[in-house]
Every structure is written in C-alpha cells, then in structure tokens.
Amino acid sequence: MDSTMIKINRKKYDSHPDVQRLINAAPRWDGEGKFNWRIEIEGRGFHLRKKLLPVLLEMTKKHCAFCDYYPLSEELINPIPIEHFFPKSKNKFPEKAYEWRNLFPSCNGCTSKKKDRFDEQLLKPDEEDYSFDTFFEVSGDGKLMPSKIADSKSKERAKVTIEIYGLNKRGILLSERKKHLRDYLRIAPIDDIDNRPYRFLIENIKEPFNPDDVINRFFQ
Ligand SMILES: [Zn+2]
Prior knowledge:
Elements: H1 17-25, E1 38-41, E2 44-47, H2 48-59, E3 82-84, E4 103-105, H3 108-114, H4 132-135, E5 136-138, E6 144-146, H5 152-164, H6 171-187, H7 199-203, H8 211-219
Antiparallel strand pairs: 1-2, 3-4, 5-6
Bound molecules: zinc ion (ZN).
C-alpha cells in the first residue's frame, strides 16, 4: 500500500503527453520579474498549471502531497496551489521553476507555511527510498513525530520536514487528524482509503483489527 507524507509514484506519469512536452522542452527561468505559469514550448503556448494540475491531482489522488489533506478541489477564488519543492525564487532554485519533478499539488496550509524555505534534509515524497514509516510515527494527540526506530539521520530529516511544513503547528490540522483517527478506529477495516484524508493514520491500523491494540498505541 502507498504509505503522509504518502509515498508518491511520479514515474507512472512521466509518459503523459503534456508531461513529456514539459520534460523535453521546459524553458529556464532566471527568477527575474513575476513567475508565469503560461510558457512557450516549441513555439506554442503551454499553460503549465492548466495542463498539469489534473495530472498532479491524479498522481496524489487529490491529496495534499505533504500533509495528505483531502480532497483538494479547485475553486475560482481559491485555486489549488502547485508547490515548488525547490523554491523558485531568484536566490534559491529558479532553474527548477518549470521542472516536472519539482511540482507538487498542495493545500494552502502547507504552501503558506513553507513559503520559499528549503533545507537539504527536507523529505521529498516522490523520492525512491521514501516511505512514511521509515521516517514518521503518529502520537495519540494527533502529532507527527520522527519514528523512534529510525536512525539519527532519518530522525533529523523527519524533524526538519515537520518544522518546514508546520505539520504540528496548525491547530486545525492537529484536531482534524485526531478526529479522523477516531473515526477510522470506529469504522475499520477501511476499503476506500484513497478517498479519505491523512491516510497514514489508517495504515497504522493493522489487520486483523484489534481496537485495544490501536487504542493502546495512540491514546496512552
Ligand atoms: Zn497540506
């Protein structure tokens, strides 16, 4: 099972025709002036956001790539942010502004917490060797924590990632995680995992489902 940050299988979408166009002929940005999603590829207009948002949403099954909020839905006054993992600002990584592997669908909370911060330790959910369980665990009060059994380097990466996306600093996020965990415990086993937020909570409910085990694990 795919496991928040839930592991993302990006390769599967590399062959999409619009992704291919971008990979093969993306322009370079120098970070000057205002960033524009509308670019030109092989002499033709290409609205990167319009073309690739549907692909990105399919890739994460409409979840935020970082906190696993669901469902991301497009509204005129509140468009879904596409997050540049490597910030596109002039003094950071403008050359990656139009790079396919640098684009993630995000919720407003994660994007506005991260801004253009970056740290080399920051976890990237489409990395080959990334999985939630390698780096994180969830406590009973809805907090994400570095996994107790992870090595020190992995613990540090989890800590940096939690900090940069504010994954334990947003009150709504914490209370929502707690609420959903209680729901999931009540209705487990759950067979439509991808239609629910914070899927990592569900994955901590092991089969066969024993409520006492999970309650011991989370609420003591
Ligand atoms: Zn988010």
